[in-house]
Amino acid sequence: MRIDTTMTAVLLLALAMVTAACGTKAKADPAAEAPPPARVEEIADVNVVKVDHPELFPLATAAARDAAPELNATGIVNADVSRTIPVISLAAGRIIEVHARLGDTVTKGQLLMRVQSADISSAYSDYQQALADEKLAHAQLERATVLYDKGAIAQKDLEVSQDTDAKARVMVQTTRARLHILGADPEHPSAIIDVKAPVSGVITDQQVAAAAGTQGLASPNPFTISDLSSVWILCDVYENNLAQVHLGEFADVRLNAYPDRVFKGRIGNISPVLDPAIRTAKVRLEMPNPGIMRFGMFVTATFHGLKKEIHAVVPASAVLHLHDRDWVYVPSGDGRFTRVAVVGGPILPGNLQEILSGLEPGQKVVANALVLQNTVEQ
After folding, report:
1. Predicted confidence band at 56 (pLDDT cuts at 50, 70, 90)?
2. Global confidence as pTM
């Protein structure tokens, strides 16, 4: 009896231990088995730098400058269309002589080329025949007049002679005018026609050569003469800048070949059609040629706005040119400097540079940004 009691106690004790173990496993903390939470690390701003001795980098205060907004555009020197005259030859034939070349300066009446033309020969033949017919008709009219006065012929026969004489005179005038149109001299019969310059100027286009042929109006113009005493400058202005361009205003024109000289051109036309590919409009500047502008030269035109603006001005050394952008260093305190992107303007007298945007007058900047940049990189 005592043995059974002991065995029962042992079994109960073992069952209690198993139950305790199962209960402990069921109540395990799931948070203890989860991965640790992610930690976010902040990356330092590359435009903020810190130096140990900020006093080694002197500061400059941005000054204020009243200036009108400016717009720069590139352009090309072109001939004034109203001063460009094509040289034509109405007579078809073979070119036997060429007396002018592309780029030559010619005067009005100067011989440009000579053309041997069958059209001229035919026109002279018709003219000579018309002269002979007129002479015969006039003689017949005089004889008919005498006969009519003596009553030998009827009035209708006289009227026929008068009509024939009138038609003969018309034919002479017609054939003579045709020779003038072709450029020939009725008093000097020849199959060769001289083509002369209709105006004075510069030959800006040539489409003929010796021994070549011409088909009159069906062929390209042999020469084009332009009067370059007055020129056009065609500039490309982007769509979002057209508000700064106004008809009748003047723009500063600088030639790439002579960058130190400034000329004035008046805005004569703003194209109503935009280039669909690059979204620009042609702006035409009209100006007299100072004598150094050549057809096809590149220029830079500066258009001035009407509304005045206040821009900051800093030493030119305070502007850092990096990665195709302009930067300045602004002090942030505690030995730190912040690199700020700006839009640089033109260089001013006194080794100063205008800042169009990104910096306000009165702000302080590092006077020599390149020295600070080199120090940071080292």
Report:
1. confident
2. 0.60
